[in-house]
Amino acid sequence: MTVAAGRARLAEALRSLSGTVERLSALSQRDYQNPYRTLEWPDSVDPDSGWFTSPELISLYGTDFYGQLGESSRRRLSFYEAANFYSLNIHGEKTLMQGLASRLYRRDLIDVAPYLHHFLDEENKHSVYFGGFCTRYAHVYRSRQVALAEEPRRDVADFLFFGKVMIFEEIADHFNRLQARDERLHPVARFINHNHHVEESRHLAFGRRLVQALWQACAPDWDGETRARIRDQLASFFTMSWREYYNPDVYADAGLPGAPDPWELSETAWSSQPQRSNRSTASRKCLRFLTSIDVLDREPPDVF
Amino acid sequence: MSSEPRADDHGQHGPGSGDARAMLRAWILAKNDDLDAGALSDQTPLLTTRYLRSVHLPELILLLERVRGTPIDVEYLGAGDFRDIDTIVTGFITPAQNTEPAS
Question: Which residues of A touch B5 (CB under 8 A)?
Fold first, then answer.
């Protein structure tokens, strides 16, 4: 297969997305929003008196330690868990925006440029909401991700970028979707989750089409070793993404009575069967899709 | 509202550097099914061989924080901080253990 033939196949695959790009762009224009006017922020919130994360989605849920916590401790933990969830989204969206901006109007991706504009715009607005909550009421939790330049081939780097975006967004959307309809949640938390879910549903639709198109166009040119490396990278990214939901900094901030070492608590929760089951449920749709188009051929290591 | 975890809040941490090396070796071997234990020394390059990749780092940093009992500021970390087991132990474990309170 020549380079020219590979490029032609990629161009054809991206042109096949034109209907999706037009439809999603029209929806984004229709629902265009001003994040500084859409939500009335209360001056303060009380971490002990409301639910900010659905209890069943808390990272300690189902552990023996969680079972021993009183109601106000659980609610306080749900507040810091929400701040961590929003922080993970901020860090993920920063990486996403960098990647989208660097690909905007690149000649071989010109057909999807109109939607990349919306994608970039909407991700920035999401971070305004996430950052708005964290900086008003808590703080932005650090990420433990360290970016290392690892992939010199552009087509592989493109595929890995959009593949990782899809995994990150699919996991987050599981939380958004469930919490958007959870009436126990504080109205601000519920709004942030609902708004993100509505906008992400467009990004997810675009991401699935693009990941499939890129794989079908590029994978035939990749040798077995390259495909294995991509699979390993994406499977490991799954594990890495989930690992950051179990943040010792959150457990320390929540000041939980009788809590063990926060790193120990993180490890115990990560390994617990209820949490493995939760991760499996939350990942199912994304894994099924990636397996169905032959991108993944095994489960991510140590997640379920 | 931030109170990052501290070792002195949660008891004594930190094995000796020999234990830390053994723990790191076991962790790296667990991440690489095809890596023979005999081929992994404390000076084996970890990044150029891809035994360690960026997707592994959050989990590794959690492990290192747990061993030393204090958070690690990741903002300024780069590839050079994870070159081999020697570099990791010297950079993340030994300094934390050698830290003396200011008098």
Answer: 248-249, 251-252, 261-263
Contact at CB, B74 and A143, closer than 8 angstroms = yes
Confidence class of residue A191 from pLDDT cuts 50, 70 and 90? Answer: very high
Check CB contact under 8 Å for B57 and A233.
Answer: no
Q: CB of A159 within 8 A of CB of A230?
A: yes
Length of chain B: 103
Taking the CA of residue B65 and the nearest CA in chain A, the distance in Å comes to 8
Closest by CA position to A71, among listed A256, A275, A274: A256
Decide if B3 and A267 are in contact by the 8 Å CB cutoff.
Answer: no
User: What residues of chain B lie within 8 A of the CB of A263, using their CB?
Assistant: 5, 62, 65-66
What does DSSP assign to residue A185?
B
pLDDT tens per residue, range A1-39: 577 777 888 888 888 889 999 999 999 999 999 999 999
- Element at A280 (helix H, strand E): helix A273-292
Which of B54, B58, B62 lies nearest to residue A150, judging by beta carbons?
B54
Cα–Cα dist A144/B66, whole Å: 13
Strand partners, A51: A185
- Name the token pair of A11: 């161009």
DSSP labels, B22-67: HHHHHHHHHH-TT--GGG--TTS-STTTTSS-GGGHHHHHHHHHHH
Longest Cα pair distance anywhere in chain A, in angstroms?
A: 65
CA pseudo-torsion sign A34, A36, A39, A40 = negative
Amino acid at A107: R
Long-range pairs, A226-229, Cβ under 8 A, ≥24: A226/A153, A226/A156
State how far the Cα of A198 lies from the Cα of A200, in Å rounded to an integer: 6
The predicted model scores a pTM of 0.91
Please tell me whether residue B12 adopts helix, strand or coil conformation: coil
Residue with tokens 């440029």: A113
Number of H helices, E strands in chain B: 4, 0
